[in-house]
Amino acid sequence: MALNKPKIVILGAGYGGLMTVTRLTKYVGPNDADITLVNKHNYHYETTWMHEASAGTLHHDRCRYQIKDVINQSRVNFVQDTVKAIKIDEKKVVLANGELQYDYLVIGLGAVPETFGIKGLKEYAFPIANINTSRLLREHIELQFATYNTEAEKRPDRLTIVVGGAGFTGIEFLGELAARVPELCKEYDVDRSLVRIICVEAAPTVLPGFDPELVDYAVHYLEENGVEFKIGTAVQECTPEGVRVGKKDEEPEQIKSQTVVWAAGVRGHPIVEEAGFENMRGRVKVNPDLRAPGHDNVFILGDSSLFMNEDTERPYPPTAQIAMQQGITVAKNLGRLIKGGELEEFKPDIKGTVASLGEHNAVGVVYGRKLKGTPASFMKKVIDNRSLFMIGGLGLTLKKGKFKFF
Amino acid sequence: MALNKPKIVILGAGYGGLMTVTRLTKYVGPNDADITLVNKHNYHYETTWMHEASAGTLHHDRCRYQIKDVINQSRVNFVQDTVKAIKIDEKKVVLANGELQYDYLVIGLGAVPETFGIKGLKEYAFPIANINTSRLLREHIELQFATYNTEAEKRPDRLTIVVGGAGFTGIEFLGELAARVPELCKEYDVDRSLVRIICVEAAPTVLPGFDPELVDYAVHYLEENGVEFKIGTAVQECTPEGVRVGKKDEEPEQIKSQTVVWAAGVRGHPIVEEAGFENMRGRVKVNPDLRAPGHDNVFILGDSSLFMNEDTERPYPPTAQIAMQQGITVAKNLGRLIKGGELEEFKPDIKGTVASLGEHNAVGVVYGRKLKGTPASFMKKVIDNRSLFMIGGLGLTLKKGKFKFF
Ligand SMILES: Cc1cc2nc3c(=O)[nH]c(=O)nc-3n(C[C@H](O)[C@H](O)[C@H](O)COP(=O)(O)OP(=O)(O)OC[C@H]3O[C@@H](n4cnc5c(N)ncnc54)[C@H](O)[C@@H]3O)c2cc1C
Ligand SMILES: Cc1cc2nc3c(=O)[nH]c(=O)nc-3n(C[C@H](O)[C@H](O)[C@H](O)COP(=O)(O)OP(=O)(O)OC[C@H]3O[C@@H](n4cnc5c(N)ncnc54)[C@H](O)[C@@H]3O)c2cc1C
Fold this sequence. Notes:
The structure is a homodimer.
Chain A lengths: L6 E5 L3 H13 L6 E6 L3 E3 L4 H6 L8 E3 L9 E5 L2 E5 L4 E4 L2 E4 L2 E4 L3 E3 L7 H4 L1 E2 L3 H18 L11 E5 L3 H20 L8 E6 L10 H13 L2 E5 L1 E7 L2 E6 L5 E4 L2 E4 L3 E3 L1 H5 L9 E2 L5 E2 L2 E6 L4 E2 L1 E2 L4 E2 L4 H20 L12 E5 L5 E5 L2 E4 L1 H27 L6
Parallel strand pairs in A: 1-2, 1-9, 2-5, 9-22, 11-18, 12-13, 12-18, 13-14, 20-23
Antiparallel strand pairs in A: 3-4, 6-7, 7-8, 10-19, 15-16, 16-17, 21-22, 24-25, 26-27, 27-28
Helix pairs in contact in A: 1-8, 1-9
The complex binds flavin-adenine dinucleotide (2 copies).
One flavin-adenine dinucleotide binds next to helix 1, strand 2, helix 2, helix 5 and helix 8 of chain B.
Pfam family, one (chains A, B): Pyr_redox_2
Cofactor (chains A, B): FAD
Enzyme class (chains A, B): oxidoreductase
């Protein structure tokens, strides 16, 4: 047994990090390297399902699983701790409760909400980010409904939910809300007509980048289910009372709301920025082999990274799909770095994108085919199950998968 | 058919009011009188189960049923409205959306929390009173737990629950909390040891009036399940930060808590007071036939009334048990008033009192026998089912009853 085995440290047990770890043991033998995975919690959560946990349509426990259940515990050290800093020069990771030395580092810390400096959003708006924020938002909405009937003077702002952003996350969350609000009305004896769901989007269209036919379908479905859209309208400020929004060159409007949700953007994890990597909004533009430029022993993947599409000369949008595929490449390349061989270039294989509209509806493109309604919703669940399958195999898929197809 | 049938109006569909209405049709024929029942909601709720709904151990929908399902709709007019005032001189009831003229009036509006003028309790403490307050308290507690892990600086006051009052309601609520807190800890990833449940009671003992052996049993059980008791200690003030409490002649103590529950007393409904009846804390000391002194056409029952125990020369404590028994007497006496006959005197038949300590434990006295543990818990459920049976018969009991005996 080698005494000085190289140390591989993987930060984050998200889609990218966990995929790396589960594949790594194929390419790196027990005598080749020590493997350590660091994650804040002892569980992995499905970031792509957080709109459901946030609305309360899917319990958060259905959206997470124990990390120890999917890693090879005899090969991988799991450290439950919070990464505080990465010291590149000292090859060291500072944790809340200790430090780790590495020879090879994989960064998969994911994203954090981006508020673009809009006043008050950080303080008063709810992000859709992880298990903690999802439980908070779900409970906050429930408390607003629960409070409504206990007050002598009725407050419509308790029943007004503003969603900032009509991109992927915003639309998926609105889809869940449209299903959840009638349930909340029943649970708390509130008339549905008193509840307002307002989506505010600065861009001139909903779901930018999506096929216009699918966009129309989604907007129509959501409007039919009580969502009001304010398109081409920017959130200018968030306060404890609500939001100020406005169209260009028009008088701003105040919307009173106790529940402002910010779903209009994410950026890379600040720790990556603070570590000194060159970055754009916290994302490091990685080399084709997924290493950070100038750092031959550091791989960065998923939402912490930025990968260019050679054809369009624009970066790929950060998705779980890409993060997982990158995990496979990182695992392979770590094997080659340690045991020799040429590093592989990452080649994304975009199978499609489907945005859910509640449990039974969706829009998207899969293998180049436009889908909407039941077929799209079916595919969405197949995709959701696929992440489980790729990381945890059939057992995990059966345990946590979505099988209520129709 | 008589053109000028007398009008009977019953206010409140609680234990007393609903019992009156369901029995009244036995003593008063369709040609004898018009019967109108007024209640704020279209449902009756089990006030005696509100500690469960408030803690979240029993869903509030399990604690209520539709009024129309238990009244004879061909005989009883049901008006869903809020009573705003009673004008005795004009024989008129003012509702939020109208007025009702009566010849005979039955008042069963129940109780409201009594804060004894303690500063801040009205504003910042949670009562355990009805479906609305229960949902609010349940959701408030959940939100505190949900928030805890989302804050960088951990706030113990989110996990500190103070219950003011170790009487019947306080102890029953503590019993539910003891069961609920471990569930909340699991749901929100909070360590049980971080949660504090503190009971503050000004009187020198827990459950005043109960047998000391049963009191010891209850205190021991609750302490074992993590409840801290501060006995002989008064709540002096409630603020948004928590409570100030103190023993006589000692330095007061500040307890930081986001959840202060006030379970230390109720008083009669203010509408009864405002109507001009002579009263003590909103309760009218009624004649033996349950009429208000000086008002031959007005019956008052349940928590709105005060009925003297001739033996002890003290009033009976207000209970659902008595309210229901009074309903039977009121129905009979209304029949006699209208059709002739001497009015009956109300004779309470106290079968016992059982305080639950969560779902599987309780203490109490039934037919003079002391009970604790499983037998007491069994009897508690029998009593809970009995109210359903008396008002709605077997059908309602099977639908809403508590049958998980062990
Ligand atoms: C509501 C929503 C819906 C989405 N839908 C889709 C979709 O349908 N399809 C799709 O492909 N993509 C979707 N995305 C995008 C997708 O979720 C992300 O691109 C993906 O999660 C990125 O994976 P990752 O491995 O980089 O990070 P993540 O999967 O987010 O994981 C990051 C991990 O790092 C951990 N971590 C963070 N900070 C620290 C720290 N300081 N110390 C220790 N551990 C830390 C976290 O706990 C987490 O486990 C969606 C996103 C959202 C929010
Ligand atoms: C947590 C708890 C546990 C208890 N446990 C027990 C127990 O184990 N055994 C026991 O015997 N007693 C118990 N009690 C006491 C018991 O609940 C009361 O004594 C009983 O509810 C009194 O019945 P009531 O008919 O007077 O009023 P309630 O049953 O309280 O009904 C009053 C009704 O009036 C309606 N109302 C109020 N205001 C208006 C308005 N302005 N307009 C129209 N309608 C209105 C309400 O909606 C309600 O339907 C408990 C009380 C609590 C809070």
